[in-house]
């Protein structure tokens, strides 16, 4: 779609040139930005000229640049110990986007757009990722991705703030994960997406797609299905749009949660059996 109100396009090469003026929006892949009208947007600031490396190994895990494309993320050769890595491809495929979109759409753009069906948000929240945010005063702050997305198309980003990167801890990358997704049609938008991550430190369940913002539930150990179901049955903030009613989203999320608990119990039992032998 033509953005008829846009009058300027800047491509800064240094952070000093990044400061967003009134009416300017950051541009990375542009797959959402160009998909609908952007009232009030008079300028675009292309972040790709800043030259951020797509992926960097860190002492504590992995850093993904906000400008890293989904295709670049999928091309990464994971470490053998990263048991959680299959979740990357599962969440990428949940977007139902072609490889052509993967080559343009960015990790940061999917999160910053803050749509319930943003499966990269689900991926990062499940892996306990932290967002590194550049502030207009030249500083930076960090917050969990689970707290960055606050609702449908709303985030905790302040005026002039830009997502620089996402840090994924090694402990999450080496955990086991589970994935369940449903939509009303074979190629429809996600109705609900339920993911889980578990290791010796505990069990985390994440619901996206069916909720306006990520719902994160944690236990010190794999809970019973009844314990999880009690929490989800009491949760009263479910998304409502043409892709699914709140009642349906709650029902399938509860079923998926029970399946993921059973999957975690099974993997733990198998691991214990292997140790015993």
UniProtKB/TrEMBL annotation:
UniProt xrefs under SUPFAM superfamilies: FAD-binding/transporter-associated domain-like
Limits of the FAD-binding PCMH-type domain: 1-173
Pfam families reported for this sequence: FAD_binding_5
InterPro entries xrefs: Diverse_Substr_Oxidored (IPR051312), FAD-bd_PCMH (IPR016166), FAD-bd_PCMH-like_sf (IPR036318), FAD-bd_PCMH_sub2 (IPR016169), Mopterin_DH_FAD-bd (IPR002346)
Superkingdom per UniProt: Bacteria
Protein known as: FAD-binding molybdopterin dehydrogenase
Biological source species: Curtobacterium oceanosedimentum
């Amino acid at each position: 779609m033509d953005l008829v109100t846009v009058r300027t396009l800047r491509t800064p090469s240094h952070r000093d040139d990044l400061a967003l003026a009134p009416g300017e929006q950051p541009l990375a892949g542009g797959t959402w930005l160009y998909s609908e009208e952007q009232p009030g947007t008079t300028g675009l600031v292309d972040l790709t000229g800043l030259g951020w490396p797509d992926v960097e190994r860190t002492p504590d895990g992995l850093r993904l640049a906000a400008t890293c494309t989904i295709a670049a993320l999928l091309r990464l050769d994971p470490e053998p110990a990263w048991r959680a890595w299959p979740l990357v491809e599962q969440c990428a495929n949940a977007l139902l986007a072609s490889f052509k979109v993967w080559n343009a759409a960015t990790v940061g753009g999917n999160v910053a757009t803050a749509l319930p069906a943003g499966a990269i948000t689900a991926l990062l929240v499940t892996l306990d990722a932290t967002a590194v945010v550049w502030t207009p005063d030249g500083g930076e702050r960090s917050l969990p991705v689970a707290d960055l997305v606050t609702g449908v198309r709303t985030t905790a980003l302040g005026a002039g703030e830009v997502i620089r990167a996402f840090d994924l801890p090694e402990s999450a990358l080496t955990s086991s994960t589970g994935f369940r997704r449903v939509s009303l049609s074979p190629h429809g938008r996600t109705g609900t997406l339920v993911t889980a991550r578990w290791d010796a430190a505990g069990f985390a369940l994440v619901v996206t797609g069916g909720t306006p913002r990520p719902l994160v539930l944690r236990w010190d150990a794999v809970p019973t299905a009844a314990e999880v179901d009690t929490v989800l049955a009491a949760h009263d903030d479910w998304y409502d749009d043409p892709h699914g009613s709140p009642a349906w989203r709650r029902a399938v999320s509860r079923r998926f949660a029970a399946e993921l608990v059973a999957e975690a119990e099974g993997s733990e039992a198998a691991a214990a059996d292997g140790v015993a032998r």
